[in-house]
Amino acid sequence: SAVISQKPSRDICQRGTSLTIQCQVDSQVTMMFWYRQQPGQSLTLIATANQGSEATYESGFVIDKFPISRPNLTFSTLTVSNMSPEDSSIYLCSVKTGGNTIYFGEGSWLTVV
Amino acid sequence: AQSVTQPDIHITVSEGASLELRCNYSYGATPYLFWYVQSPGQGLQLLLKYFSGDTLVQGIKGFEAEFKRSQSSFNLRKPSVHWSDAAEYFCAVGAGAAGNKLTFGGGTRVLVKP
Asked: What is the pLDDT of residue B98?
């Protein structure tokens, strides 16, 4: 299994500002992902965080809005830029372990006012 | 493109009764299938997964799921529900290379009556 820590766990932000969410894993993993869960909705994949190269974004998500870094095999950040109330969501970090199992962090609960 | 349908948005069960949550998927290749549970205010916890082999898989907390290729289904079951099972349950299919990218169903919220 993998233990995934996210920071911050919750935040309230002003519109127009940016917030960076950190994801730390307790072991090296090959694959890291970022998901969004809008209020009352299911989860949607934002992007795959690639170590040492640019993230791979899903349709509807762009790097300018959600820049992602992954400097090593245990850490990644997601920035939500120029926030609006529509960005109020839970942002979840996810990793894939060697057993092909995908685990999630506790999520970062973001409210934009 | 892959998709997952969870037909039941809400299910209410009595404590001690059995529970079955339905999941139907659409995917052109052999799927990687997962069930996750999300308790209020929490992240997602993996209950069980299916990649290949025995089509009846056992998970944590007394849950099991059965993969039926002919019906494109992966239903989750528990023989006796506890009050702590009240949560939202998500079925997901892994697509792409080695099933890396998860597509989730809409979720089923389970309420447990005393």
From this structure: 67
Amino acid letter, residue B49: K
Query: Using CB atoms and an 8 Å cut-off, which of residues 16-35 of chain B contact chain A?
Result: 32, 34
Summarised one tens digit per residue, pLDDT across range A48-102 is 998 888 899 999 999 999 999 999 999 999 999 999 999 999 999 999 987 778 9
Contact flag A106-B36 (C-beta cutoff 8 Å) = no
Mutation pick from A7, A9, A104 vs chain B, by most beta carbons of B within 10 Å, is: A104
Contact A106 B99 (CB under 8 A): no
The span from the CA of A43 to the CA of A103, in Å, is 13
Burial degree of B114 (CB within 10 A; 0-12, 13-18, 19+): exposed
Range B60-64 contact pairs with CB under 8 angstroms and sequence separation of 24 or more: B61/B37, B61/B85, B63/B35
Residues A96 and A88: beta-carbon distance below 8 Å? no
What separation in angstroms does the CA of B3 have from each of A26, B8, B22, B71, B91?
A: 31, 16, 14, 14, 10
For B102, which of A90, A102, A105 is closest by C-beta distance? A102
Tell me the pLDDT tens digit for each residue of A2-34: 899 999 999 999 999 999 999 999 999 988 999
Q: Give kind and range of the element (H or E) at residue B86.
A: none
Longest dimension (CA), chain A: 41
